[in-house]
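pls ignore typos typing on phone
cytidine-5'-monophosphate + seq
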Amino acid sequence: AEPLEIVAAAQARLGAGPLAGKRVLVTSGPTHEPIDPVRYIANRSSGAQGTAIARALSGLGAEVVFVTGPADIPPPEGIEVVRVGSAREMLEATQAALPADAAIFAAAVADWRVKSASDRKLKKTKGGMPALEFEENPDILATVSGMESGRPALVVGFAAETDDVIDNATAKRQRKGCDWILANDVSPATGIMGGQENAVTLITADGAEEWPRMTKAQVADRLAQKIADALA
Ligand code: C5P
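k done
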């Protein structure tokens, strides 16, 4: 294990750190929406930012439950990991993991799934091609934000935007009913999607706070510290 993971695991065992005694849920990674048993629709999320956030929270002593879609990188050591495939499975696992003191929704959940995915492999037929019809997936962040009882005290979402980042993210915070939104510009030129760095703006009820460009691990540390302050 990496030294930081050893520190995090030791702190978690010792019940040390500002988040000791707090349970925090983190969703991460892409979802896979089946077309048939062997094919699926996915997105380019690597799971890097969500994994870093889970590691940072655990490093501050939180009990972390990490609900992850099929990501490129392994989850942090020493925390509870729930692996899911589709958005609907992610919602189910998220609800099963509650109650929690805070919930961070870093997953890149597919907006749509294939309506009536086939339980048999679709065959290639001469001249014919399947026409895929879609239906909307549940919005996990909005569902948890709107819980009438047992809602986590702090609900944090992400907004990956390519234009009018702050305006869109501010509107998204309202629409989803979450407390904070971490907004980032994922235009290809930024190299953020799939890269090591991130440039985010934290949007709360008090306004927007722009953070300088830093590594995803640094974003995670800063967010974890903010969460610790908010829950204190
Ligand atoms: O609407 P949009 O996908 O841009 O919202 C992004 C935020 O909402 C992220 O925090 C993401 O994890 C969450 N989300 C979700 N369930 C969905 C879609 C997005 O939890 N079906």
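The CA atoms of residues 52 and 218 lie 9 Å apart. Helices lie at 3-14, 48-59, 87-97, 140-145, 165-176, 216-231. more later
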